[in-house]
Each structure stands twice: as structure tokens, then as C-alpha cells.
Write a structure and sequence with these properties.
Keywords: Metal-binding, Oxidoreductase, Zinc. Pfam families: ADH_N. Its cofactor is Zn(2+). This is Zinc-dependent alcohol dehydrogenase family protein. The chain contains 10 helices and 17 strands. The chain is an alpha/beta fold. Helix 1 (39-45) packs across helix 10 and helix 4 (148-159) packs across helix 5. The chain starts with a strand and ends with a strand.
Length: 328
């Protein structure tokens, strides 16, 4: 098999040839059809989110077919289409898991971080943490749904069902999907991009958002909630200043630069700031049930597997709309 392997912060991923692994008990061997390139992968490559092992194959937006089953696996068969998200395994025994918060499990293992992911021709995954996918779906368009879509869905839920006016800060892979979801739910959506990024603002408007402008511009109306997809901590106080009393700022990224000090008056009035951490299998079921009824369109740029470094650099520079996807 071929894989792009991370071997240290600041170093480009290396293309390696290695034997196809055998699935262990409870695992599936997967033939990768497509794997999305997520900003979390960029945080790993740039050393901002260190993996738990010395070298790892990144990638956690995997669309694949089942190639082989390990011992004890039921409910799957060879040829099934499957999705593999960021949460690769949780213990099921700790207090958080028992409370339905497996996303907070202290022993959780994450795909492409604590175990090899989908920047490869083949991958292993725990069968019970895989998501069934319909065989007719386009793998490239489906791949971003498995993290950009899922974490966006969890962030939108965190914003609250009563949040009718939503501001999205950073209009990349997650925001371009969740803008469509929020519109389908009947919410008003405003998009905020880097100052001067008129191309990204035009992209947001093409997807039906009501208004698009710079992060330093005031939206047309006060926000019920703001969702921060951009990993810039300076946006937190700025977003608070745009949220009405009783509103909420949701930080959706797994990594963010430091939040600067801000006056208490921005928080006063029962405003809230909260983070979103990882995802659960229940999130995946809810989200994919929703998009079956309300399809969303992924805007993607495809790269070959050995173009992973090019894709990461394009994500770093923000040179494409939507999401990048590797096709082995």
C-alpha cells in the first residue's frame, strides 16, 4: 500500500510503500476511495497539535469500501461503503462515555492522530466507530462531510435551536457546508471572512447566505450566535461584540491561538463563550439523517495522494473554496 506519513513537525509528509495491514479483532480493513484534507491535519503537520506517536498517517475524513473484516465484526460485509471520522475509538466505560459524551473520553483515540488515517490507499478502523454510507454517493463530495460537516453540525447544535441569526467567522470547509444546513433550517446566515477577501465573500453569497463581509465589519443585525471556524483567538472578543445579550459564541476548532484579554462588558448580559470538542457517533447519525433529507453540496478540489503536501499548503494559504480531497 501507499501512504503519506508524518514524521515530525515542520517536515513535509513522506510518500511510503508498506504492506497492507491485517485487521485486528473488531477492526475493518478499508480500501480508501477519498480522504478530505482538514485544518486539523494542517495543525498536525505544522506542529500545533502533536500526534501521540512518532509517525502517523494523517486523514480523518475517509470514504472507503470494506476490504476485509477482523474477528468478531458483525454488521459489515466486504464491499460496503463506509465513512471514518475523527473519533476513532472511545472506551465506553468512563463517566463521560456513560453520560453519552464519548467525545470527551480521556482515553479516546483519534483517526490520523493516535492511529493511522486515510492519506493512504488502505486504512484500518474500529468497526463500531465507522459510519455506513450509501454506495451511490460521490466519495469526493462525501469526504468533507465526515469532519467539516460533522463538527459544523455539532457547533450549530451548540449555538442553540433558538439562534435564528447565525454569524460564521471563517468561510472554509465547515462553514460552506453548515451555511447550507442553517439555511435549510430556516435560519438567517451571515458570513465573515478575512478583511479584503472579496472572493470568499462572493463564494458565501453564491451559497445563499444573506450577507457577507469582513470580520471587522458589523453585520446588518445583531447575532443570536456566532460560530468561529477560523482558529484566531482574537475573533472571540470581536464576535462577542456582535452577539446580542443572551447570545453565544461557539469556538469550533480543535486548536486556536490565544484569546486576548477583553472587558467584562462584552461578556455581561448573559452572553456565553463555549468550545466544541470532537464529535460523537450520535452526531454522525443525526447529521447524515439530516443531509439525506436536505442535501448539501460540497465544493471540492481533488488532489492525488502524493499531492498531500500541495493540498495542505493550499489550505494554509487559502487558495481554494470549500474543501480539498485526496484521491488515492
Amino acid at each position: 500500500m501507499r501512504a503519506m506519513r508524518w514524521r515530525g513537525s515542520g517536515r513535509p509528509l513522506e510518500l511510503v510503500e508498506c504492506p497492507v495491514p491485517r485487521p485486528g479483532r473488531g477492526e475493518l480493513l478499508l480500501k480508501v476511495l477519498a480522504c478530505g484534507v482538514c485544518r486539523t491535519d494542517l495543525h498536525i503537520a505544522d506542529g500545533e497539535l502533536a500526534p501521540t506517536c512518532a509517525c502517523v498517517v494523517p486523514g480523518h475524513e475517509i470514504v472507503a469500501t470494506v476490504a476485509a473484516l477482523g474477528d468478531g465484526v458483525t454488521g459489515w460485509q466486504a464491499g460496503d461503503h463506509v465513512g471514518v471520522p475523527w473519533l476513532g475509538w472511545a472506551c465506553g466505560e468512563c463517566d463521560d462515555c456513560r453520560r453519552g459524551r464519548e467525545n470527551l473520553c480521556a482515553r479516546a483515540v483519534f483517526t490520523g492522530h493516535g492511529r493511522d488515517g486515510g492519506y493512504a490507499s488502505h486504512a484500518l478502523a474500529h468497526a463500531s466507530f465507522c459510519i455506513p454510507l450509501p454506495p451511490e454517493g460521490d466519495p469526493v463530495e462525501t469526504a468533507p462531510l465526515l469532519c467539516a460537516g460533522l463538527i459544523g453540525w455539532r457547533a450549530l447544535k451548540a449555538a442553540g435551536d433558538d439562534a435564528r441569526v447565525i454569524g460564521l467567522y471563517g468561510f472554509g470547509a465547515s462553514a460552506h457546508l453548515i451555511a447550507q444546513v442553517a439555511k435549510a433550517q430556516g435560519r438567517r446566515v451571515f458570513a465573515m471572512t478575512r478583511p479584503g477577501d472579496t472572493a470568499r465573500q462572493a463564494f458565501a453569497l453564491s451559497l445563499g447566505v444573506e450577507w457577507a463581509g469582513s470580520t471587522d465589519a458589523a453585520p446588518p443585525d445583531a447575532l443570536d450566535a456566532a460560530i468561529l471556524f477560523a482558529p484566531d483567538g482574537a475573533l472571540v472578543p470581536l464576535a462577542l461584540s456582535r452577539v446580542r445579550r443572551g447570545g453565544r459564541v461557539v469556538c469550533a476548532g480543535i486548536h486556536m491561538s490565544d484569546i486576548p484579554a477583553f472587558p467584562y462588558s462584552l461578556l455581561w448580559g448573559e452572553r456565553e463563550v463555549r468550545s466544541v470538542a470532537n464529535l460523537t457517533r450520535a452526531d454522525a447519525k443525526e447529521f447524515f439523517d439530516f443531509v439525506r433529507q436536505h442535501p448539501v453540496r460540497s465544493h471540492t478540489t481533488a488532489y492525488p495522494l502524493d499531492g498531500a503536501n500541495e493540498a495542505l499548503d493550499a489550505l494554509r494559504r487559502g487558495t481554494f473554496d470549500g474543501a480539498a480531497v485526496l484521491v488515492p
